[in-house]
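PROTEIN DATA CARD
Card holder: START domain-containing protein 10
Chain length: 280
Origin: Lepisosteus oculatus
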Amino acid sequence: MASGSAVVPDDSVFSDFRRQCQSKENWVSKYRHGGMEVWVEVAPVPAAQDRGKNHVSKVHKIKCKMTINDVSAATMYDVLHDGAYRKKWDPTVLESYDIARITDNADVGYYSWICPKPLKNRDVVTLRAWQVKDNAYMIINYSVKHPKYPPRKDLVRAISILTGYLLEPTGPDSCTFTYLSQADPKGSLPKWVVNKASQYLAPKVLKCVHKAGQQYPEWKKHNSPDKKPWYHPEQSTLPSMEASELAIQRGESLENVDESGVRESRENEEAEDSRTGQRD
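Structure generated from the sequence above:
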């Protein structure tokens, strides 16, 4: 991913994101049920000289694909963009707002969310970019440093290495919805806990977004129905900001907050796998 003043993704970044969403190579299926499937990217095999050395396992890249038979790709795309509507359907949101406009198809925003106790609540500052091209709707984001939005003492600053959505129409009122993410919630959670949790959370998030899509057209009729700045940048009321004022946020620069109250065993996780990891 680019750094410095070139933080805004170009066509090659979107093309690579779409390739990852559509690829089956180097992905292992972890869950498949009811039109939903979850994959985890295969970790590279360490070189012989590196085996046995101490290393920190990376956070998995996960991919979740859902078949939607009653909502169009365009409507789901609008749901993901519409910040005012998100506060209506997202039960975990604490704060969510756009900070500044970078280009006609990129902005920087803030999002914080509620985590189950005893975890501390999280927040992120991300650059979000979007593109509609070749019968596909895409939104991607990744964490950035903003000079006026440093980490807060009451929240753990999480990291989106790359998170995004690909919506592909399959009919006038149907689509496939792919969510791909590599994100680190930081804190002191073991990486294996993070990886396991993400596999179960992704389907729940997508189901919630799908329900929001079903209800969005009626809601939008009564809430600025003609305002869609993601299609019409002239409608945006955000202040402009130069991309050079931002930098990619690296996880290594953030403090790990002690969350020693969280204790879960691998045995419990494996038991949960056998109960919920249904396959068609």
